[in-house]
Structures are given as C-alpha cells and as structure tokens.
Amino acid sequence: MTDVALRPWSEGDLDLLVRNNAPELMEHLGGPESDEKLVARHARYLRGWRDGSSQMYAIVTPEHPEGIGAIGFWPHDDDGDRRMFEVGWTVQAAHQGRGVARAALESLIEAAHAVDASRPIAAYPRLDNDASNALCRRAGFVLEGVEEFEYPAGTWLQSNVWVLPPAAPATA
C-alpha cells in the first residue's frame, strides 16, 4: 500500500469533490448530487474548518497529491443522549481494495480523538455496503443496530449503526 495522508480540505478541492461524485462512488449514498449541491458541500467543508464545526480532509498519496478520496468528521447527537462524532468517507474506484480507506480512517480517528477523546465515533454505512461495513468492523467499531439514515442526496436508507467507543472517559 502507498503512503496515505490526510490534507485539510482546501479551496482547490472542488474538483476532487466532483470526481468523488461519480455514480459508482455514490451508489451507496443515494446517487450523485447536482452541481449546485456540490458547490454548497464544498463551501460547507471549508466553513467547517473556519468555524470548527467539522474537519473534512482530502485523502492523498505521494503519487496523487490532488486527492483520491475524502474523509471527515463532525459533531452528531445520538437522539440527544450521546454526543458523538460522525464519520464519512469515499475512496475513488481505482484506489479501492488497497488499504487506503483503512489507513485514512485510522488517521481520522486520531484527529477526532485529538479534538475530544471522550466522544464515541459513529459511522452509518448502508446495509448493503459490504466494504464500508467490513472497514468499520476491522477498525474496532461495534455494530449497535440498524436505522433509517439520510444520505447526501436527501435519500433515506436503511443503514448499520457502527460506534467506536471513546478513547478516554468524559470529564465533568
């Protein structure tokens, strides 16, 4: 596997977001988004870094500094009783099956723990997204159940609820 790194989302990453919007990559996310939604998503990713509401990253390698995917985390409340981070990712088709997503997720978990190690981390892959479900399992997430989850294209789909327990206890 090539060295995988995370680079904070930048102004120049709109093209990466467009490439990540390919039908084969959006199959498990309700389908590709419109150009307008991509521009809004790009702005939201940039805003997240400025206001601290999220941390989105380009997944890069030495051979592909322009990015081969995206990954990030943002605050999420689990029906009001747990403050968590939610994570999401995509890796372009030509780079799948090479450990890229696993390496990126490991780095992202470290970044999330640096922000707040007392928060559990949740992922919501569709039931039929075998690769993402396997990634969650291998990364130590615990399957807590199934729920309807809204995906980027505004589609509600049955998803597994995977939760990685906090790395440190909550402080009062």
Notes on the structure:
The protein is an alpha+beta fold and 172 residues long. It has one domain: Gcn5-related N-acetyltransferase (GNAT) (Aminopeptidase, 3-Layer(aba) Sandwich). Helix content is 31%, strand content 32%. The chain has five helices and seven strands. Strands 1-2-3-4-5-7-6 form a seven-stranded mixed β-sheet, with helices on both faces. The longest helix has 17 residues, at 35-51. The mean pLDDT is 87.
String of helices and strands: EHHHEEEHEHEE
Separate helix tally: 5
Q: Give a count of the beta strands, DSSP E runs of length 2 or more.
A: 7
CATH C-level category: Alpha Beta
For this structure, the CATH topology is Aminopeptidase
DSSP helix fraction: 25-40%
Find the structural class using helix and strand composition: alpha+beta
Radius of gyration equals 15 Å
Based on CA inertia axes, which overall geometry fits? globular
Give a quick summary of the entry.
The chain is of the alpha+beta class and 172 residues long.
Task: Give the arrangement of secondary structure elements.
Elements: E1 5-8, H1 14-20, H2 23-26, H3 35-51, E2 55-61, E3 64-77, E4 83-91, H4 100-116, E5 121-123, H5 130-138, E6 142-150, E7 156-164
Parallel strand pairs: 4-5
Antiparallel strand pairs: 1-2, 2-3, 3-4, 5-7, 6-7
Key structural traits:
5 helices; alpha+beta; single chain; Aminopeptidase; 7 strands; 172 residues
